[in-house]
Amino acid sequence: MNEQISGLGFAAEHDCPIPYMERLRSYYLTLGYGNPYKWAHYADTPFVALKKPLAEARVALVTTAAPYQPDQGDQGPGAAYNAGAKFYKVYSGDTDDKPDLRISHLGYDRKYTTADDLNSYFPLAQLKALASEGRIKHVAPRFHGAPTNRSQAATIDQDCTEILSRVREDGADAAIIVAN
User: Fold this and answer.
1) What is the rounded CA–CA span in Å between residue 100 and residue 77?
2) C-alpha angle with apex 169: 149 to 89, nearest 5 degrees?
3) Helix (H, G, I), strand (E, B) or coil at 5
4) If 175 and its partner were Cys, which of 60, 97, 108, 161 is the partner (CB 3.0–4.6 Å)?
5) What residue numbers bound the domain in which 138 lies?
6) How many whole angstroms separate alpha carbon 114 and alpha carbon 110?
7) Under 8 Å between Cβ of 59 and 121
8) Nearest to residue 58, comparing CAs of 152, 178, 176?
9) Position 42 in a domain
10) 3 pLDDT exceeds 60?
11) Which of 149, 178, 150 lies closest to 84 in space, CA to CA?
12) Quick check: is 9 in a domain?
C-alpha cells in the first residue's frame, strides 16, 4: 500500500466483512432445499414512524428464543444445535415473570458465542431499565415468541399477523424484534 493511502486509516486487506449471505445460500443448498436461501428484500420499508416519542411509548418485545422444553434434550448454554427444541406456534409470556428461554434450536456460531447470558438474546431486563429511566414509558405486559422454521410467506402471513394482533391487544406503540 502506498504512503498516501496508508495514511487514511484504511483496514488491512484481510479485514473485510464475512460473506454471511453467500454462506447461508450455500448452506441451504447443502441441506438439500434445492435452491439457495433468498433474503427478504423490500423496495419500500414495511415499517411506520412512531406517532409519539419513545419516552411516551409502550414497547413490546418479540423474540425467536424458545421456551425451555425439558423433554427435548440439552438446551442449555453450550448445547449443540437442537432441532427438537424448536417451537411451531407463536407464544406469549408475562413480562413480570423471568421466563426460561433458550436458543439451542437456532444456528449460531457456538465456537465464538455462548448462550450463557439470557440478556444477550432476550433483553427484557434492559427494556425494563429503559422504562425506569424514562427512556420509554412502559414495557408491554407480554412478550411474544416468533417461530423460526417457517417459510417467509408463512412467517409473514401467519406468525407476523398473529404477533401484530397480540402486540396491539397489549396496547404497544412499538415492538423490538430480537432475532437470534
Assistant:
1) 12
2) 20
3) helix
4) 60
5) 54-178
6) 6
7) no
8) 176
9) no
10) no
11) 149
12) no
Q: Is residue 163 part of a domain?
A: yes
Angle at 31 between CA 82 and CA 77, to 5 degrees: 20
DSSP 92-149: EEETTS---EE-TTS---TTT-----HHHH-THHHHHHHHHTTSSSEEEEEEEE--SS
Condensed to tens digits (0 to 9), the pLDDT of residues 91-105 reads 999 999 999 999 999
Predicted model pTM: 0.81
Indicate whether 58 pLDDT > 80: yes
- Total domains present in the chain: 1
Q: Which helix (H) or strand (E) element contains residue 23?
A: helix 20-30
- Average pLDDT for 115-129: 94
Q: How far apart are CA 61 and CA 144, in angstroms?
A: 6
Q: Which residues contact 35 (CB under 8 A, 6 or more apart)?
A: 28, 29
- HSE, side-chain direction, 13 A CA sphere, residue 34: 0
CA distances from 24 to 35, 84, 101, 147, 175 (A): 11, 21, 25, 19, 27
Tell whether the torsion through CA atoms of 148, 164, 96 and 91 is positive or negative: negative
151 or 106, greater pLDDT: 106
